[in-house]
Amino acid sequence: MKKIKSYITLNNAKYLYSLEKRKDGVIFVECPEAKISQEFLAEDVPNLLIDLPNLIMAEKEYKKKQSEIIRFRISQQDKKKIEQKAIEKGFTSVSGYLRDLALN
Asked: In whole numbers, what is the pLDDT of the chain averaged over residues?
């Protein structure tokens, strides 16, 4: 089905989002800056779009707070295993996967 792409402007910066009608009453919404990539009921999309600026700003604030770096050495084979497990668990980054393992 047809995908509609648009931008929202916040603090003189443009942030892309897209809407794609899936099945009856379901819209797939994607906004990388707000970490949204999922289906919503069509009736919930207007409220989501109203709240999208707040979600984008909250994600930017969250990223800003993550300024510390932890480094350690591992073998290439272990790195591949960790990357594969992160993907299998649905993480988009190894950092997010390791953070989740350590803190939850």
From this structure: 92
